[in-house]
Amino acid sequence: MAVYTDVSDEDIARFVAEYDIGNVISFKGIAEGVENTNFLLQTDQAPFILTLYEKRVNPDDLPFYLGLMDHLSSKGLNCPTPIHGTDGVALRRLCGRPAAITSFLNGMSPRRIQPHHCAGLGTATAQLHTAGQDFDIYLGNAFGVKGWRPLFESCRSDANGVQPGLEQMIEVELDFLEANWPHHLPAGVIHADLFPDNVFFFPGQDDVSGVIDFYFACNDLLAYDLAICMNAWCFEPDNSFNVTKARNLLSSYGKVRPLSGDELAALPILARGASLRFLLTRLYDWINTPKDALVTPKNPREYINKLRFHQRVDSASAYGLSEE
Ligand SMILES: Nc1ncnc2c1ncn2[C@@H]1O[C@H](COP(=O)(O)OP(=O)(O)O)[C@@H](O)[C@H]1O
Ligand SMILES: N[C@@H](CCOP(=O)(O)O)C(=O)O
Fold this sequence. Notes:
Layout: H1 9-16, E1 24-29, E2 37-43, E3 47-52, H2 62-74, E4 92-94, E5 97-103, H3 115-131, H4 145-155, H5 159-162, H6 166-180, E6 187-190, E7 199-201, E8 208-211, E9 218-221, H7 222-233, H8 243-256, H9 261-288, H10 301-311
Helix pairs in contact: 3-7, 3-8, 4-6, 4-9, 6-9, 7-8, 7-9, 9-10
The chain binds adenosine-5'-diphosphate (ADP) and the ligand N[C@@H](CCOP(=O)(O)O)C(=O)O.
Organism: Thalassospira alkalitolerans
InterPro entries: Aminoglycoside_PTrfase, Homoserine_kinase_II, Kinase-like_dom_sf, Pseudomonas-type_ThrB
Catalytic activity: L-homoserine + ATP = O-phospho-L-homoserine + ADP + H(+)
């Protein structure tokens, strides 16, 4: 459950009056989600999502996120479109928090991921990368390679309590990634959190119907976004890697935005980096989330297994593709 901020009926009526979106019919908190408070807002015109940005979102970054969604929507990507008030402003304040209303996207995140979902995801990811190329605001990745060591230092003393030997494992991996990170690869706007809960499909259809939650989006290596997807979509619940899903993901991506030989060769290290990134943020949350918190922290151990898998990989052929 992630509704951190209460909003009264009077507050919402006053807030909605600043837009040209009709009158409020209903308004309810959304349990899913971790970072922000989301409400499903139904007016007599349409459904919308109202988001109140909570502590973990840096308010200075909000113009990037909202501007990016505006930009991608204008290029035909199915992502939430920020709704602007009658004064033209999309980013406002409600109950002491930065807040915005965006369009509501139909569709559902897949409960059981099938290979065809990975194909759809590959196409949508490449479309997002292509559409983001001429977005003119820059935001570095706070959870990119430079951010991993400070994050590790903030929680390393508790790492072995989560799994014996974890502190040493992360230390060695960090040294390797910092020394070998492929900074030269093509970069641009990435989503950086393309997990199944942020990608919608219509039942029985292969194409992605919408992508949400752009609040980790940033500028980084394009192929790194694919590595994040591979980790989030191509492992089975028993931790085995599904090469068919990975092949579908990568080959569908490549049909829209062909991957260079360098990008393909770098996939194993990018996947190691993507594993470490989510291992570290989950470890931090695992250690620091109070027992009575509204959200249950995600298990970091899942990402230890993923990291170990990629450490044994030496070429993209393990992901179902040949390097040319
Ligand atoms: N534009 C949208 N259209 C439809 N549902 C949405 C939209 N934005 C958010 N949601 C719903 O709200 C939930 C939480 O949103 P999300 O952005 O993932 O939150 P958080 O950033 O807090 O993790 C999603 O799982 C989805 O059910
Ligand atoms: N995808 C991350 C956690 C971020 O959650 P989201 O609800 O904002 O997508 C993870 O799995 O560690």
